[in-house]
Amino acid sequence: MVDIEVQISSDFDPFAEAKDSGAPEAKEHVHICIQKNGKKNLTVVQGLRKEFSYKKILKDLKKEFYCNENVVQDKDLGIVIQLQGDQRKNVSYFLVTASVVKKNQIKIHGF
After folding, report:
1. b/e 30-42 (16+ beta carbons within 10 angstroms → b)
2. Which residue of 23, 63, 64, 79 sits 20 to 30 Å from the alpha carbon of 100, by its own alpha carbon?
3. What percentage of residues in the chain have a pLDDT greater than 70?
4. Residue 77: left (phi > 0), alpha (psi -120 to 50), or beta?
5. Could you tell me the domains of the chain?
6. In terms of Cα–Cα distance, which of 6, 4, 29, 2 is closest to 17?
7. Angle subtended at Cα 84 by Cα 8 and Cα 41, rounded to the nearest 5 degrees
8. Distance CA 26, CA 82 (A)
């Protein structure tokens, strides 16, 4: 039997694909991922255009999905929306039906 040493990085960056790619279409995608925060999950939405009213989007998301939300200004990722729980499919459906983005512009990441 052969022993193979496997190294798994503990620093997982779900947006690494978007940062590494220098292609212009990478900046046009909205990335929706899930992050573990202790025992709880956070859904993170990154990549929405700056001209959108984040307060209106958050108000509608909170009303639609009955969850807490927050807007965070990240120095690397820009403005990021955080939602309580695993809301990836709900948020992607909401963004498409509200005509915020097109379906082919959404990338869903997670486990």
Report:
1. bbbbbeeeeeebb
2. 23
3. 75
4. alpha
5. 24-108 (3.30.780.10)
6. 29
7. 20
8. 21
Provide the pLDDT for residue 11.
Answer: 54
Longest distance between any two alpha carbons in the chain, whole Å: 59
Alpha-carbon distance 87 to 98, whole Å?
16
Query: Which sign does the torsion angle of CA 64, 67, 68, 70 carry?
Result: negative
Rounded CA-CA distance 109/111 in Å is 7
Summarize pLDDT for 31-49 with one digit per residue, the tens.
Answer: 999 988 888 889 999 988 8
| Ramachandran category for residue 93: left, alpha or beta (phi over 0 → left; psi -120 to 50 → alpha) | alpha
> How many residues are there in the chain?
111
Asked if 96 contacts 19 with a C-beta cutoff of 8 angstroms, the reply is: no
